[in-house]
Amino acid sequence: MDRLSEDKRVGKVYLVGSGPGDPELLTIKAKRLIESADVIVYDHLPGPEILGMMPGGSEKIDAGKRAGDHRIPQHQINELLIRKAREGKSVVRLKGGDPYLFGRGGEEAAELRRAGIPVEVVPGITSAIAAPAYAGIPVTHRDHASMLTIITGHEDPAKRETALDWKLLAEFEGTLIILMGVKMLKENTRELLKHGKDPKTPVAIIERGTRPDQRTTRGTLDEIARIAEEEGVRAPAVIVIGSVAALGE
Ligand code: SAH
User: Total structural domains in the chain?
Assistant: First the structure.
């Protein structure tokens, strides 16, 4: 069998960013693919409105479902995507925000390519920028910040092999955005303060950004962990640290 006819039998996987939650922030391409896919593999980040757009005829697989206390392991998700594509299906792997920003999109794309499956990425609007925007916070501003760094707050700063250089981050003069940072907020702010970041640096935390129940909690670096605890701040939330965080109040 020649290559062309072989390829015809293989489907394709689209790594699609669903944006931060407001369904109107979905790209036209994402909407078209969601509406025409044979299979949609999703987790919970896209939010109820977007999940509600999936057509009745498509197979929907919840990859965020917990078995006991564990999510479906990544290798099983990869295997699932490969299997469905090999059945000749058009598969949408739907991810919150942008698929290549802390979404494991890069890992999934590499696995699929290794398996010889055609992959296409459809970028999405990331929560890292859109959630602050909906709260009135521009992540750069000529009078405030000309640089932007986006980090994961998920890592425990106490662990020795951490990939984050907190000294460098404390000295960084641009806007610092932390995703997945609610649980470690106390440890991470302590780390910045320890390395000399101004305790009065403004901080804003935007929960459920761009969704109808978006909420913003504000404070300064030295107090935000306490305030967040008092306010019951929960994931998903974007944490903005820097003078832009005082804008939009
Ligand atoms: N790829 C996603 C990020 C995945 S990591 C993106 O580009 O947005 C998951 C983290 O994203 C969450 O812990 C939270 O920090 C952030 N996040 C995603 N959606 C969010 C939303 N609607 N509001 C606030 N934070 C959100």
Answer: 2
97 and 127 in contact (C-beta within 8 Å)? yes
Of 80, 110, 125, the domain-final residue: 125
Instruction: Scan for tokens 């910045």, then name that residue.
Output: 192
Enter the tokens of residue 16: 């699609």
Measured CA to CA, the distance from residue 78 to residue 54 in angstroms comes to 21
Q: How far is CA 17 from each of CA 30, 72, 110, 120, 187, rounded to the nearest angstrom?
A: 7, 20, 17, 11, 30
Range of the domain at 67: 4-125
If you measure from the C-alpha of residue 1 to the centroid of ligand 1, how many angstroms do you get, rounded to a whole number? 45
Please write the tens of the pLDDT for every residue from 94-143: 999 999 999 889 999 999 999 999 999 999 999 999 999 999 999 999 99
Q: What is the pLDDT of residues 222-247, one digit of tens each?
A: 999 999 999 999 999 999 999 999 99
Q: Whose CA is nearest to atom 24 of ligand 1?
A: 237
Structural domain ending residue among the three candidates 125, 155, 174:
125
Kindly state whether residues 116 and 22 are assigned to the same domain: yes
> Is any ligand 1 atom within 6 A of the Cβ of residue 179?
yes
Ligand 1 pocket, residue 72 CB under 6 Å:
no
Closest CA to 10 of 112, 121, 123: 112
Is the domain of 39 the same as that of 91?
Answer: yes
Q: Identify the residue whose tokens are 């101004």.
A: 198
User: At 107, which CATH number?
Assistant: 3.40.1010.10
Using DSSP bridges, classify how beta strands 59-62 and 148-152 pair: parallel, antiparallel or unpaired: unpaired
CA atoms within 13 A on the CB side of 62: 10
Q: How far is CA 199 from the centre of its chain?
A: 28
